[in-house]
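RECORD TYPE: inverse folding
INPUT: structure tokens
STRUCTURE:
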């Protein structure tokens, strides 16, 4: 047995999310057993507060190929929950493991906790229009996006374990994607532009404000995907970046639910829009009803002083 009591088994190919899931286990008084592919990833998480780290050894370089073996391990260990980082690879693994276990699974939770033996998860449905709460019984699988839980600290022992791999899928090549934009998920302040801008050159108005605030520049999906004025990494929302800055300031962003999904965890939301009925004002802590072409340069000048 890896755990003295039923615990949370954790996997994420992104160490930051694994750290947060360990924090989630601690928060809920559960032991955590972290699975990694190989020793290097295990060492990177050794100080993250887990109870045990199992470095998987085997014939495959793809974690998905160990799904069946992981499912068997979870059953043998009487695990309570398999919590997986919601990355493309993590979602793939989670679905396969849940399939082998034939158990309950919830993807991309917005919040999670325990009520006795049951896991209670909240997640968004229908493009963020509805929030749904679900209770899971028995060994279950969930995927957890970044930025949901505080990390923990503490040393864990590492156990190396040989597992059988299903080699029907083999890795041919891994090539890095060259990202043009910033990583908004780590930004402390974000200035966000929407479709109110008349032309690409007007982005300078937002850049000037962002510079004086020390903020990163983000946008709505339409700016990135339709007008191609900013790289796709810059757009915020349910299908873009989910951000958690201390300050988010929007200009000419109507605040459709798919966009607001990405800023729900912002500390302070400030919105500038000509339409006083724009939904962004419902999400905002402070709002300015006005023309961004007038308001923003004034704000920039005021902040310079
Ligand atoms: C499945 C799905 C997923 C989606 N995912 C995302 C997502 O992840 N992120 C995202 O952003 N969108 C997403 N969308 C698109 C989303 O529904 C909206 O269409 C989009 O967010 C609107 O962008 P916007 O606010 O820039 O534009 P608009 O909705 O056109 O809003 C422009 C705003 O500017 C204001 N305005 C106009 N002129 C001025 C001025 N001079 N000064 C100040 N204000 C002015 C207007 O009053 C208006 O409120 C998704 C849609 C679907 C269907």
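DESIGNED SEQUENCE:
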């Amino acid at each position: 047995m890896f755990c003295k009591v039923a615990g949370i088994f954790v996997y994420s190919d992104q160490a930051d999310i694994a750290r947060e899931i360990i924090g989630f286990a601690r928060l809920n008084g559960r032991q955590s057993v972290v699975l990694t592919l190989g020793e290097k990833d295990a060492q990177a998480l050794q100080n993250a507060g887990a109870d045990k780290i199992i470095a998987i050894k085997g014939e495959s370089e793809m974690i998905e190929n160990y799904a069946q073996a992981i499912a068997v391990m979870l059953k043998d260990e009487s695990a309570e929950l398999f919590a997986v980082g919601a990355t493309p690879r993590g979602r793939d693994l989670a679905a396969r493991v849940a399939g082998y276990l034939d158990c309950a699974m919830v993807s991309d939770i917005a919040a999670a906790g325990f009520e006795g033996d049951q896991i209670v998860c909240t997640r968004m449905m229908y493009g963020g229009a509805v929030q749904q709460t679900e209770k899971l019984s028995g060994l279950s699988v969930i995927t957890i996006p970044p930025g949901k839980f505080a990390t923990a600290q503490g040393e864990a022992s590492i156990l190396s374990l040989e597992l059988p791999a299903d080699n029907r899928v083999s890795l041919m090549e891994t090539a890095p994607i060259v990202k043009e934009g910033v990583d908004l998920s780590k930004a402390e302040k974000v200035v966000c532009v929407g479709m109110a801008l008349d032309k690409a050159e007007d982005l300078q108005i937002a850049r000037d404000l962002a510079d004086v605030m020390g903020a990163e520049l983000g946008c709505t999906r339409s700016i990135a995907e339709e007008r191609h004025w900013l790289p796709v990494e810059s757009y915020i929302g349910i299908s873009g970046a989910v951000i958690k800055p201390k300050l988010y300031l929007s200009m000419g962003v109507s605040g459709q639910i798919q966009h607001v999904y990405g800023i729900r965890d912002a500390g302070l939301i400030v919105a500038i829009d000509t339409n006083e009925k724009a939904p962004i004002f419902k999400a905002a802590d402070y709002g300015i009803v006005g023309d961004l072409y007038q308001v923003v340069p004034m704000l920039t000048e005021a902040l310079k002083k």
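NOTES: The chain has nine helices and 15 strands.
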